Amino acid sequence: MPTALFDTPILINGFRDPAFTKNRDLPLHRWVPWIAGFSAQFVDDCLVRYLAPNKTGATVLDPFAGVGTTLVEAFIHGHNVIGFEINPYAALAARLKLDAVSIEPGAVRAQIAGFQRFMDIRCPDDRAPKGQPRSRPPIGFSGRTQLFSPPVERRILFALDFINLIGKPKVRDLFRLALGSVMVSMSNYSYEPSLTRRSAVDKEDIPDARVAHVLRSKLELMRGDIEYLQEQMRTIRRRPKVKVYSRSFFSSLKTLKCKAFVDLVVTSPPYLNNYHYPRNTRPQLHWLGMASGPGYNGAREEQSFGKFWQTVRDQPPMRLSFSFPLLEETIEAIRGLNTHRGSYGGPGWANYVTTYFNDAHEFCKILKELLRPQAVAIIVLGNSVIQGVEVKTEEYFGRIAQESGLTFEDCLLLRKKRTGTSIIRSSVRVDRPPVKTALYESAIILRK
Question: What are the CB-based long-range contacts (under 8 Å, 24+) for 214-220?
Fold first, then answer.
């Protein structure tokens, strides 16, 4: 993508602001609001710095693809892309952004017009819906507050009736993704930044919404972005190869069946902050038919990098699968805190930290197998505070990479993300008053 598209100032280390919020106004990247991830401009800087100038056809990998920021940027630059993402909704977003190069804008325009006619008959935005929709709310989806108010729910169900009738799979998926991207904005929930009830943050519930208008506006924006991508790709002689796998990166060696072929990795694993990524997509997973029943199994919570405190806290004391005395000391210090709370105190959190770094060790070993000689991996991570103990994740991660046979080339501070206490350091979970700690974000530069 031409760098002129971005106007954010360069940071002192040569990278522009990595915050995902910078994507809100960028074609394709703006399709889906996302809490985690980094900016397209940061990826653009990585591509320019670590791949040969004016060279296309390199292979760029994102092991935690999310909604596809790395993949889309590399694709527009003319590089082959490979992504792994266990969350089906995020994987759908990443895959559709890349598929946009082959979606006929005229077909999208025709379906948008058909959708408007369909909704005008069954549930005009300014009048009560007529009749009953064929679609039904998902089974097993529940919360402390009903997701949609009854009028909104009926309009959403009618929209699903139309979507299910679309014959072209990619266009149908485009409509599904558009609905997923706007549904929370019309619900009684809100991103704060985690998904929570509007009433919990002193916001009024939404009694009704212009579902057809909101969805049509989103689709028109997406159609324009499809035309933009197709225009951009006309300047590239060969169509880059694309593979997006809705599965764990830990299966990559078996999935890809080849080694030492990746030229660049730009990725950001889940941070060591117990941020529950599956929770944020639970409405989309259920309402788009990707999950059913209670809990977060549709987002493959058990396959997440580092798991979650809730999934490992009650296990017997866990140990590192590799030797790292300094990290072991940190883990044991955490394990000895607030033991009277059992798994809710230090022992449970120590299991979480152990699991996280065991996964980091496995990740680095796989990375070494996939990278070409001299290829670079850029890993964006933040530090964390666990039971009052600061864990400098980037330093430990770099040491683990070295132990796995990679070169820990550099660690660059990207930004001071915030100053305060992490969710894991709240007064609910520790006995001492909170101590302010700078929570920052860094880019670890590894080389094969």
Answer: 214/182, 214/185, 214/186, 215/115, 215/159, 215/175, 215/178, 215/179, 215/182, 216/112, 216/115, 216/116, 218/178, 218/181, 218/182, 219/108, 219/112, 219/115, 219/174, 219/175, 219/178, 220/112
List pLDDT tens digits, range 125-183. 777 777 889 999 998 777 778 999 999 999 999 999 999 999 999 999 999 999 999 99
**Positive or negative, the Cα torsion across 175, 106, 230, 22?**
negative
Phi, psi of 77 (to 5 degrees): -75, -5
Residues 181 and 218: beta-carbon distance below 8 Å: yes
Indicate the SS3 state at residue 330.
helix
CB-based burial label for 436 (10 Å; 0-12, 13-18, 19+): exposed
Q: Which of 152, 155, 161, 159 is nearest to 198 (CA)?
A: 152
Q: Across residues 92-117, what is the average pLDDT?
A: 97
| CA atoms of 225 and 105, how far apart (whole Å) | 9
| Strand segments (E) across 330-429 | 371-382, 384-386, 389-391, 407-420
pTM reported for the whole predicted model: 0.90
Kindly report which listed range (84-98, 221-235, 430-444) carries the lowest average pLDDT score.
430-444
